[in-house]
Amino acid sequence: MKQEIVVCENLSKTFTVGSSEVKAVDGVSFSFERGEFSSIVGPSGSGKTTLLNLIGTLEVPTQGRIIINGTDLSHFTRDELTNFRRKNLGFVFQFFNLIEGLTAFENIELPLIFDSVPYEQRKQTVDSLIQDFNLDYLRDKFPEELSSGERQRVSIMRALVNNPILLLADEPTGNLDTKTGRAVLDLFDSLNKERGTSILLVTHDLSAAKRANRTLHMHDGKIAFDMKMEEMIEEGI
Length: 237
What we know:
Elements: E1 4-17, E2 20-33, E3 37-41, H1 48-55, E4 63-68, E5 71-72, H2 78-88, E6 89-93, H3 104-114, H4 119-132, H5 148-160, E7 166-170, H6 178-195, E8 199-203, H7 206-209, E9 214-219, E10 222-228, H8 229-235
Parallel strand pairs: 3-8, 3-9, 6-7, 7-8
Antiparallel strand pairs: 1-2, 1-4, 4-5, 9-10
């Protein structure tokens, strides 16, 4: 029996813009199982990135609750959320967010430094990850020496270095050309199928979303429909 790794219950997020209130996420409820590869798709302003940020504890919901790996985050303080996020979640962003003055190796090991992991253990962990990805050739290169695809691979390794229970990816192919974007999606496929990594991918690109096993379509802050890949194929979506 599969375990629910994420449960969202009646989740809402409202932002104040000037004198108006904008409900970016509006009463969303869904669950996400361990080992699942799901995507959230929708046009700009649909609420998909806000939903990802709520699940990633980067934003706090206005209403509702989130349970991750059995832990109810409803009453966590900001510091407790930061600590939970650092230990349990991995993030991949569109613009890589690498530190320019650090090598690829140093960028990857950064989360371990924040967790006060001893140097020898950090080195062993990062070396193993780099070898698994067959990217030893770039370990001592700086971000400006890397292609966009290589930068994104480094950011993915950094997201995985703490062995997170959930990988959250926000438009990870949005800054890549078609061929490189396809290679990054292939990597997500491999992580999910071979390592069992749980992945939640946000994208505006339906072709990227279809790489997942399940797709949630958002519109005006709500989930318009939630379909497994085989159902999407049957419906011709």
